[in-house]
Structures are given as C-alpha cells and as structure tokens.
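batch_manifest entry 22 of 60
target: Diadenosine tetraphosphate (Ap4A) hydrolase
source organism: Gordonia westfalica
requested by: lab member K.T.
priority: normal
notes from requester: please return tokens only, no post-processing; we will run our own comparison against the previous entry in this batch. if the run fails, retry once and flag.
--- input ---
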Amino acid sequence: MASVFSMIINGDIPGRFVWKDGEAVAFLTIEPVTPGHVLVVPRNEVDHWEQMDSTLFAHLSGVAQKVGQAVKDAFDAPRIGLLIAGLEVPHVHIHVFQGLSLETFDLANANKNASPEDLDAAAEKIRASLRSLGYGEYVAD
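--- output ---
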C-alpha cells in the first residue's frame, strides 16, 4: 500500500505544495510545530534515509535548504530547524521549520488543530518567498 505521502504526491489526498521538481516535493504538514512547517519528500518511496542513494539525499538536502531560506524570509525567523525523524510515516521526509527554541524540535509539541486558513496563508507566504529568491520554476501553484 502506498504511503500517505505517496497519496499526497499522486493527488489522491490534498496537499499544500510549495515546491515540485522531478525528484522531490515539499508541502506543509497539517500538524506544524511552528507556522510554515514544511516536509521535503522524495517522489519515490524510500523508508530509511540512511539507505537512500546519496545523490537523492543531496538533492533533498538542497531542496530543504532552499525551502528553509524561504521559510526564514517569509516569517522573519531567527533560525531554521531541520529534522529527520523517520517514525511517523515510512517514507523519508525532512522537516523544515522555524527553529524558535529547542521545544520546536519536539514533534510532540505540534499543533494538531492548525486551521486550514492559517495553513493556506503560510503556504502562500512560502511560495511568494521562493519566487522572490529565484526559485519560481519549482514553486507549486
């Protein structure tokens, strides 16, 4: 059975995409630890990040860095956090979020009731920032 992330990538479940390219996508999580919390995910299902092809891992890291720059710009964040937990969904995903404190690195502190309007607004802020940073060709509309 396909992972929930594959279902989002394939359009079977809606997602708030901010980035799309041939190998990776980035979309907002529905349970953010901070506003603008994004997941960077390979299009192909890979369960364990340490077993991933190093070229794909480098690409995902590069996308995470660009998305992180956009989140930092969009929310005037002092720092950007990056986390690979690998426990929630058996499909590699890199969490990119405002690193406001060590508590923001604890996914147990996620907002399980984020409003769709807030998530939509955060996605649009990140898309606008990605465009202004010169990554418009990858911005998902």
